[in-house]
Amino acid sequence: MLTASIVEELISNLEGITLIGGFSANEGGTLSGKIAVKVGQEIDSLRWDVVISPYYPLKSIGLTSSIQFRNTHLLAYPHIMEDGSLCMHTKEYKDSESQFICDLESLQDWVQTYYIQGQKDAHYEHLIVKPHLVNNQLYSFCFADTREVIPIGDFGLVYYTRLKTGWHMGGG
Hints:
With 172 residues, this protein is an alpha+beta fold. It has 2 helices and 6 strands. The strands form 2 sheets. Strands 1-2-3-4 form a 4-stranded antiparallel β-sheet, covered by helices on one side. Helix 1 crosses helix 2. The longest helix has 21 residues.
C-alpha cells in the first residue's frame, strides 16, 4: 500500500517530475497532492493534481482508474476527460510502487506525445458518454467507433455492467 512518504520518495527519484508541496491522506485513506511534469527548457512545467485511491493499484468497475492525474487547463487535448482527468491505460503491476512509477512514466509520455508534439489519434474510443437522468435513474451510452459498416437489422453481443452505486461524476 502506498503512503504519502513512499509516493514522495518515488517522485523524488524520477527525472522530469517534481513534487509541489507534499502528499497527504484523508480519513478514507485517499492520497492527494500536486506534481509538475517538465515540458522543456523554455516552457513552464505542467502542474497536475494527483489523487490515489486506497485500493490502488487495483481497479473498480465504474471508476476510470484508482489513480487520477487532473489538469483542467488541458481539456482541449486528447485523452483529457471532462473533469480534467487524464485517461490512461497502462501496464498492470501487482505491487503499488512499480505501478505508480509506470503511471508517472505514462504521464510523461502523454505530455511528450500530445502536449509537446501535438499529436492527434486517428481512432479514439469513447467508453462512456455523460450520464443522463431518465425516470430518476442515471443512464449512459457506451460505444466504440468501428471500422466495419454494420448492416441495419444486424445483431450481436453487447457486454455491459452497472456502474458502482454511489459513484457519479467522480464523486464518492
